[in-house]
Each structure stands twice: as structure tokens, then as C-alpha cells.
Amino acid sequence: MKALVVDDSRAMRRIIARYLQDLGFEVHEAASGLDALVSAPKIPGLSLILLDWNMPEMNGIDFIRALRAIDKSKDMPILMVTTNAAKDDIVEALRAGVDSYIIKPFTTDTFKEKIEAVIPR
Ligand SMILES: [Mg+2]
To answer: Disulfide check for 34: which of 4, 18, 58, 117 has CB 3.0–4.6 Å away?
Structure first.
């Protein structure tokens, strides 16, 4: 399975990528929403996007709205991984179309649970 990690922090991308590799994913990376919007459609068989909220160029929320407007990406599982822990933020992200939400910092157990919940079996 393939996953795309979208985060402007290289260190955070590395951490998330390592967790995903341990779960058997082939990992691709993007440094902004704009970068991800260009790369996501070019990854055949992409099955999951891990998405930061706060990023330059295009933030996570704008990315979701843009991606969901593309017909073949309407149902792409998106897991938001962010420090934004306010209830209003979570509601906004869910409304924009994320499938699940993880607040940084997180444990490997939480991470695994959330991934398994959004990936269709
Ligand atoms: Mg960020």
C-alpha cells in the first residue's frame, strides 16, 4: 500500500514515514498542500494521505477542498495530523472532508489505530 505524507516539517515527515513503513506502507512525501495536489494524482494506487494543517503555500484545509473537487480523489482516505486540538478546528477539518484526525504528539498505538480505522479492508 502507498501513503503520501504531507507536512512542511521534514523532521515530522520522517517520523510519520517511519511509522508508516513499519506498518508496511510505501511512503511518498510532499512539503505543502500545493506540492501534494500536484504529486497525489501521479502516484498510482495511492491509498492514504496523512495531512498536516499548518503549511505555507497551501494549508491542509485548502488542500482537502481542492483534492475533494477532483472526481477520482473524492473518496481518498485522509488522516489529518496536526497540533490544532481545538474542537472547532476538528469540526472544520471533518466538514472539509478528512476521514480522521490525530493530534500531535501521538503514540505509535494511536497512530496504528487511526490508520487501520480509515483504510478500507
Ligand atoms: Mg506544519
So the answer is: 58
Distance 7 CA to ligand 1 centre (A): 6
Ligand 1 centroid – CA 95 distance (Å): 20
How does pLDDT run across 55-76, given as a tens digit for each residue? 999 999 999 999 999 988 889 9
Angle at 91 between CA 46 and CA 109, to 5 degrees: 55
How far apart CA 83 and CA 94 sit, in angstroms, is 15
Tell me the CA–centroid distance for residue 48 and ligand 1, in Å.
Answer: 18
Domain with residue 61: its CATH number is 3.40.50.2300
Tell me the residue range of the domain where 20 lies: 2-118
Angle at 31 between CA 27 and CA 33, to 5 degrees: 100
Centre of ligand 1 from the C-alpha of residue 45, in Å: 26
Tell me if 114 sits within 8 A of 83, measured CB to CB. Answer: no
Tell me the pLDDT tens digit for each residue of 35-46.
999 999 999 999
Residue (of 98, 66, 65, 62) closest to 80 by Cα position: 98
